[in-house]
Amino acid sequence: MSVSQNAGAKASSHFDAVIVGAGFSGLYQLHLLRDKLGRSVRVLEAAGGIGGTWYWNRYPGARCDSESHYYCYSFSRELQQEWRWSERYPEHPEIRRYLNYVAERFNLLPDIQLNTKVMRADFNDESNRWVIQTESGEQFEATYLVTAVGCLSTANVPNIAGLDDFGGDWYHTGHWPHEGVNLAGKRVGLVGTGSTGIQATPVIAEQAEHLTVFQRTANYSVPARNRPLDDAMQAWIAGNHDEIRLQARRTTNGHPFDIPELSALDVSDAERAALYEAAWERGGLRFRATFKDLITNREANETASEFIRDKIRSIVKDPATAEKLVPHDHLYATKRPPIDTNYFETFNRDNVALVDLKADPIDRIVKEGIRTQAGTHPLDVIVFATGFDALTGPLFGLNVHGSDGVALKDVWADGPRTYLGLQTPGFPNLFTITGPGSPSVLTNMPVAIEQHAEWIADCIAHMRDKGASRIEATREATEKWVAHVNEAAEATLLPMASSSWYLGANVPGKPKVFMPYAGGLAHYRQICADVAANHYDGFAIS
Ligand code: NAP
């Protein structure tokens, strides 16, 4: 197969597979399909560089909440031995350096076409091929279309009246200017206190003359305890590749640590407090794994929630500010739990103010700044840390039309319906990496991504071996899977957080449906493996 990068408009280039997106998912899928299967593949990437979410998210303080030694690929021991992470949690430039290293090491760049935004994809029922059109008018045809567009890549800028009147500059954290923003001497307003806002707040507070944090929902956060990785840790990582890999794969969230078989309700108050204190000191998302039932038992969770509330009260010196920062309307980790470096401490600074939007809502944005009911907050810069149209947003952005021209957006009008998160009936030969209905955002993403990319590659190899050209999830299997996804969510406390983006609640008009699969990554891996072993049960192959 061949294609010219400068092919004229409407020239059609043929491939076995087109992959959309060049982040963690797209790079590995390309490697598998091209180098393991010998397929012709083209990756189309809208950005001017590789990295996916890490290409765009360059806001102050942006770093990964998973630890570097497992927020990375595990498929190549050599790669893992060659690469040395510098800190416990990698900062965004280091992740981009890593992904660029991977792309060069596996010679992926020649098959990645940057600055190429997909505008539409149509399935042709006669040829059993996808026809993909780009913004510049190029056309690609491929038997398989693999979406590797990420779950959190469509920025959600709130529709607040008056934004156009604002006299200063405004930015969404997910589209932070690559040259950076000089905040020195500026009065900054930051809207949003999810993982992003909580990471950005302490860093912006140090850079800006003044920072006002506009908080709609108070959030729990646990210290990250970031630190440089010393030689002993580097040696441990290098010496334990296989164990780290295996452990990450056999756990609920794809993190290489086990959750103890201990209920928060089966220990004395003193023992429980000591365990929480140790987890607080250790830092990170592992706090969620202090007990086995924090995500499933309300009473158990209350003990963790209350521990963090007390921590907030002890850190923040002004009691009125502390009380505004204490969350009461949801339980710890029922929304994606942030981790932080000095978030609550930042509210002790003289140049930081907190506005509680529940008590004092935004009226509108005016030329001078943000006007709430109590008055105007003068600002030079507004930072929207207001999240994403998660999971479905990036897929709808591709404008996908399946059999008979049906649009994915219409089929999912009441919420996503997938089989294993991998496929949707009516969209043959379309595979989604970490889509809705898969564990995706409830996990350490690279582990979930590797599993999906490997499953898809194995499936395409199976198709080749059978001489088949069309694979489509059946409606029956999909309905069963959707019911199971709901059942798995209901077995946890997660759907109780009614404003969570897991439910699509952060985007006005989006159907409120719990989107990721909460049954655990290890369990999900087994289901996918069984489906494949059972002749791709639930898929129609021809
Ligand atoms: P988010 O969790 O959706 O948080 C958005 C924040 O903006 C919330 O506090 C929300 O308030 C607020 N908000 C939204 N619309 C608003 C409006 N109209 N007015 C006032 N406030 C508004 O988004 P995020 O913080 O960007 O994080 C999204 C996800 O990205 C995370 O959960 C995580 O999975 C991922 N992430 C990962 C990392 C990492 O690993 N390093 C870092 C950052 C993000 P409500 O709560 O009231 O809706």
Describe this structure in words.
There is one protein chain. This protein has 542 residues and is α/β, with parallel strands linked by helices. The protein is 32% helix and 16% strand. Strands 1, 2, 3, 4, 5, 6, 17 and 18 form an 8-stranded mixed β-sheet that branches. A 5-stranded parallel β-sheet has the order 7-16-8-9-12, with helices on one face. A 3-stranded antiparallel β-sheet has the order 13-14-15, with no helix packed on it. Helix 5 links the parallel strand 8 and strand 9. Helix 1 packs parallel to helix 14 and helix 14 packs parallel to helix 16. The protein binds NADP nicotinamide-adenine-dinucleotide phosphate (NAP). NADP nicotinamide-adenine-dinucleotide phosphate binds next to helix 5.
Fold topology:
Layout: E1 12-20, H1 24-36, E2 41-44, H2 53-56, H3 77-82, H4 92-105, E3 112-113, E4 118-124, E5 129-134, E6 139-147, E7 169-172, E8 187-191, H5 195-207, E9 210-215, E10 222-223, H6 231-239, H7 241-249, H8 269-282, H9 298-315, H10 319-325, E11 339-340, H11 343-346, E12 352-356, E13 362-366, E14 369-372, E15 375-378, E16 381-384, H12 392-396, E17 400-401, H13 408-411, E18 430-432, H14 445-466, E19 471-473, H15 475-490, H16 521-533, E20 539-541
Parallel strand pairs: 1-2, 1-6, 2-3, 4-17, 6-18, 7-16, 8-9, 8-16, 9-12, 10-11
Antiparallel strand pairs: 4-5, 5-6, 13-14, 14-15, 19-20
Bound molecules: NADP nicotinamide-adenine-dinucleotide phosphate (NAP).
Describe the structure concisely for a colleague.
With 542 residues, the protein is α/β, with parallel strands linked by helices. It is built from 16 helices and 20 strands. 32% of the residues lie in helices and 16% in strands.
